[in-house]
Amino acid sequence: MAEKRSKEIGVISKGYLLLYNIVQTLGWSYLLIICCQHFISQNAVTSKGLYPKVELMLKVFQTAAILEIIHCAIGIVPSSAMTTGMQVFSRLCTVWLFTVPDKEVQNNTSILMYLTAWTITEIIRYSFYACSLVNYLPYFLQWCRYTFFIILYPIGVTGEMLTVIAAIPFVKKTGIYSMSLPNAMNISFSFLYFLYFCLLIYLPAFLMLYLYMFRQRKKVLGSSRLTSTKVD
Prior knowledge:
This protein is 78% helix and 0% strand. It is mainly α.
């Protein structure tokens, strides 16, 4: 009875994850289409006027990534909840804390950089997961998953860091999200110092995750080439 129930839970989890990854693939694909339509209408690759067109979809599909931390925490996917949480947290901060409040940041080139990196990365990543769940994973998609990050990850992280830097003047001027004493909770918080802290940890966090992806690339693509050689 317990084994049957476990199988049922497994089927439900797999069906849910498949649906989640398909929806995310479609959502990020639509975001990429919006970006391309913007560039065509402007006759240039420019960030000016782009953010209002993608704002709602970006908020929805990036915020939905919080579910991935939960997936890791409850064990329905084998990834590390801490590593996933770091990646999701940095992106959520980039969108909700650094981009949304400041109209000038929304026209910064950094937006174009992280949007380009995120959309392409997520289309590949979520379609990779969806195909893996149905046991049909084309080698080309696997190769893209463990190769495109070499260029896209530095572009995305650079875009995120430049967004933080671009937000600093606005934070200094407005004091947004900061708390000073005295107040009812008897605590103080400087959002400006939080931005500085983010800038300090971006590089070591990036290097840790970047090197991890290279190890995964060697492990996955290396074993794939070995398997292919044996089969031939």
